[in-house]
Design brief:
Pdz3 Domain, globular, 21 strands, alpha+beta, 19% strand, 6-stranded mixed beta sheet, 6-stranded antiparallel beta sheet, 2-enoyl-CoA Hydratase, Chain A, domain 1, 43% helix, 16 helices
Length: 545
């Protein structure tokens, strides 16, 4: 055997041995940690002084483990798996109402127009006290809310609390279809408007249906509104893009650790329309599949993107079946737009505790669209036309996380039996002043971090019998914080008014009313109309810089 052959054999042996050793080391470490957890769990179960809840302990352990990864990797129990199916298909059997369990209360947060809960007289803001013979307060909210679902044509009896009164309802369950296109219409200037608020398995077909109807009514330009769309199914994003771009175009690429999961996705069908001018609206809540559509249409120079920078979710998840009917939603790859951009904003790989670095803080890399326009990666999809908005203050962020706007809208609804039509409704400055008074008088609805910390410090002082000495100082600080809080909110007054307007209109006219109001007054839609009505400007935007 020659020295060269011997050298190659030795090198191969070292490489193979290294791979096997690495695999065994990794496997041993996994097996070791599993054994530690199992033996510890047995010890707790056998000898802990009180009875334990094994399912609850395991759920806590799983959640804490996944918290070290990213927010998209999640474990689903049997009920969670059912919710996943509903979100993907857009169909389920229930009463036609969405509920949320918050602070020990099960609250109706949305009604679907024309379904049984709406017909029976249930209202947004109603608190469900009892479902059949089950008191909500005796059960976990996630568990008890599933009782609203069931076989079609069965009834559920509800006791509801509304404005401090208890009301009884018998509501029939029926098959619910959640339309991902909450509204579309033809505007006077022959511009069609289609809003898409999710990518379930009806997204593409719903857009196509709306498009065909608008086209037959005279539409020759289109606004596709993806603002607030959190994403959904990848294949629906590809098929939606395919409606407007030729067959066999690359829409998105995914790169995974497991090679077989790295794929290039191309359009498979003949398009619906290659010529109609399109403006796509995005904002900071347009994410995932919505960003795939916006990013691919931008890279292929098929549409003008207008609004504010999108959320920046460039990670792809896949469901993995686990034992006993459970599932794991696992981040398995990153996606890249046709030009090669990955638009992931937060760098979870290098996070340090609660601090997560942003890719947009680093140097952004330049890419070219089909026509040679320059676009950049990192931090979402940057629009071709940016709509300026005031920077959101921390106080405004705290307001949106609270239920203050929701509760104000409920209060407003019961004080105003009727309001004007959505396309004419304006939430006035006087109304905004009333809202500020509402949050002053209902402080539990909305507290800033500073207020919470001051209250906590005062409570500690009270427990240490020191509160009398600082009572006046504490009250002065609280009053000053209130003034500062209102000033911070006023910096985002226009945006806050938009949120309140949507919440109020939803009470009277459902989602459709919100979008009708947007078409009449929204700045982004008005700008999109201007762009589409100026053919020369539209074409210039899509040309090489």
């Amino acid at each position: 055997m020659t020295k060269l052959k011997k050298g190659i054999l030795i090198l191969l042996s070292v490489l193979v041995g290294s791979v096997i050793f690495a695999f065994r080391t990794d496997y041993f470490e996994v097996a070791k940690q599993m054994e530690i957890y199992t033996t510890m769990f047995k010890e707790i179960n056998m000898y802990y002084i009180d009875e334990i809840n094994p399912a609850k302990l395991t759920d806590t352990a799983i959640k804490n483990m996944l918290n070290d990864l990213d927010p998209y990797t999640k474990f689903y129990d049997e009920q969670g798996v059912e919710d996943v199916k509903i979100n993907s298909s857009g169909e389920y059997s229930g009463i036609g109402a969405q509920s949320n369990y918050y602070d020990g209360k099960l609250i109706i947060i949305e009604l679907f127009n024309g379904y049984s809960a709406d017909i029976a007289g249930v209202k947004v803001g109603d608190q469900i006290i009892k479902i059949d013979n089950i008191l909500v307060e005796d059960y976990n909210g996630k568990q008890v809310s599933t009782l609203l679902k069931g076989s079609p044509n069965t009834s559920v009896d509800l006791i509801i609390k509304r404005q401090e009164k208890l009301l009884n309802f018998s509501v029939k369950r029926e098959k619910i279809k959640v339309n991902p296109v909450p509204h579309y219409q033809l505007m006077d200037n022959e511009i069609g408007y289609i809003a898409l608020d999710r990518f379930n398995d009806k997204a593409t077909s719903s857009i196509k249906e709306a498009f065909v109807e608008l086209k037959s009514s005279g539409m020759n330009k289109l606004i596709l509104d993806l603002r607030g769309n959190p994403g959904g199914l990848l294949n629906e994003a590809i098929n939606t893009t395919n409606l407007f771009v030729p067959k066999n175009e690359v829409v998105v690429k995914t790169v995974a650790k497991v090679k077989k999961w790295s794929e290039t996705y191309r359009t498979k069908n003949e398009p619906m329309d290659l010529e109609i001018p399109i403006v796509v609206l995005i904002d900071g809540n347009s994410a995932s599949a919505a960003e795939i559509v916006a990013g691919s249409l931008q890279d292929l120079d098929r549409a003008v993107i207008l609004g504010t920078r999108s959320f920046g979710k460039g990670l792809v998840q896949r469901y993995r079946n686990l034992t006993y009917g459970t599932k794991l939603k696992l981040t398995i790859s990153k996606y890249y737009t046709p030009s090669g951009r990955n638009i992931q904003e937060l760098d979870y790989t290098n996070k340090n505790g609660n601090s997560i670095p942003k890719f947009s803080d680093k140097k952004r890399n330049a890419f070219k669209t089909k026509n040679g326009r320059t676009v950049y990666d990192g931090g979402g999809i940057a629009p071709d036309i940016k709509i300026d908005r005031s920077e959101r203050t921390d106080v405004t962020k705290a307001l949106y996380k609270s239920d203050a706007i929701f509760n104000y809208a409920s209060n407003y609804y019961f004080k105003h039996q009727t309001i004007t039509q959505p396309e004419k409704y304006i939430f006035s400055d006087a109304d905004y002043h009333n809202f500020l008074n509402f949050i002053k008088q209902n402080k539990t609805n909305f507290k800033t971090l500073s207020e919470k910390k001051f209250e906590s410090a005062f409570k500690t002082a009270k427990n240490e019998n020191l509160s009398n000495a600082i009572q006046t100082t504490f009250q002065n600080l609280t009053d000053q914080l209130e003034v500062q809080k209102i000033e911070a909110l006023n910096k985002n007054k226009g945006e806050i008014i938009e949120h309140i307007t949507d919440e109020i209109l939803n009470r009277y006219y459902f989602k459709k009313g919100e979008y009708q109001n947007h078409i009449a007054f929204n700045k982004s839609i008005n700008e999109a109309i201007k762009v589409l009505n100026n053919k020369e400007n539209y074409n210039q935007i899509l040309k090489n810089d």
